[in-house]
Structures are given as C-alpha cells and as structure tokens.
Amino acid sequence: MSVHPLRAVDSVTQAKIHLAAAHRLAVLHELEEGIDNHFTVTVPGRDDRYLILPFGLHWSEARASDMIVFDESGKTLEGEGVVELSAQCIHAPIHRLSGARVVLHTHQTWAVALNMLQDNRVLPASQTAAFFHGHIAYDDTYTGTADTLEEGERLAGVLGDKSGGKHTVFMKNHGILVTGETVAQAYRRLYKLERVCRAQVLAMSTGKPLQVLSEAIVAQVQSPPVDDRHTRAEREQLFFEAMMRILDRQSPGYAD
Fold it and tell me: pTM of whole model > 0.90?
C-alpha cells in the first residue's frame, strides 16, 4: 500500500501544511464558500495563538506559507494579511474555552439544508451517522453574524469542554462547526458529517419513515473491536494521508 511520505518538518510547518491541505480538500469536496468560512489550528506549543488562511484568498489556492498567526484580539503576529472578523470572534474563544486544537466552520450544503429545518437533529439511521450520535451539540437560536467575542464564548458554552464528549455544533439557520485534536481528525469528521446529512435529507425526501438504530446498536458501533487492526487515530491519519495524495495529483502546491 502506498502511503503519503512523512515530511521531515517541524510541528508548526506540518500544521500549516495540513491546514492548507484541508482548505483545498474542502473545495474538492464542495464544502467551501470561496473565501468565506474559516479553519483554524492552535499553534503547536502555544495555547493563545492560532493559524488561519488570511481573508481574501480562495481556498483552492491555500498554501502552507500563506498561513498567518493571530491572537484573540485579532492582531496578526506572523505573516501577511488579516483574520476576518467573524473568524476571530468565533474561533479564538472556542479554542480557549473548549481546549480544541482544531476548529473548522463551514456552510456546507447538506448540513445547512438540515439546519434549515425546524427539527434539524442528525438521526442514527445509518452506520456512519451512528458515530456522531451523542457527539453533536445543537445551537437552536441564530443570533446573526458573529462580530463580538461574546458570540464565540456563547458557542463555546453550547459545545462545552472535551469532557462532555461533544465535538460538533449544529448552528441552526447558519452552518456547522467541527473540532478535533488534529487536522486529520477534524477534517475526517467534517467530510463524513456532510455525507451523513446528505443521506438523511435524501432519505427524508422520500416521505417514508426512517429506520433509526437502537441505542444498543449505536453503542456497539461506537465501541471499537478489541482486536481491531487500526486505532481510530490511525484511521484518521490514513484517511488524511490518502486525501493528501489526491491533492498531490490534482492540486499540487499546498505544501509550499
């Protein structure tokens, strides 16, 4: 099996490469809105500085060298460009209060379609959906565009800290927000969540009842087999390495 070559780089450079790759993958997977929405990563070794693509660049042209470092005040500390206001106001407080190392926020189509419904709950009606059961927090009150740090703090309160087990926020009438410890983990969640939402919306469109899995089956799905050949972290890394190999063929230059 061919694997993406490990890059002999420091942790900050690797974070920049993975962040640039995630932006380009979001274009490939139709999860983006051009220059809008935002992905952030806490700078390795720091808890108060964050990596982001400067506002104005299209996600398809993201490169590791483009990434800037900003703080919660919105000041650019390294690199050229500025952080968009809502990115600052949403992401910085969530990083600080939840402890998440990676925060991905999108308005991806199928998740937004589900979030436009009065009942926007993701149902464990498929194996993939079962993995998200109990890990999604729901923000049922859209308050308008985020232009203050208080809004990010409010969303962080909806998500809770890591001990609560939630890693995703469904933002009614708005979009979604996914967190993770690594870019690989967070992006895999983002990618799979869109497929879950698409399948649910399509199934609901038939007008027929959904067959929801029992809590017992959901628990079995979420519990890895004792003799599993790959840990969840290994699966996340293999997934992301495979996706980067696709980028190497279809959209090279993200690691520059």
Answer: yes
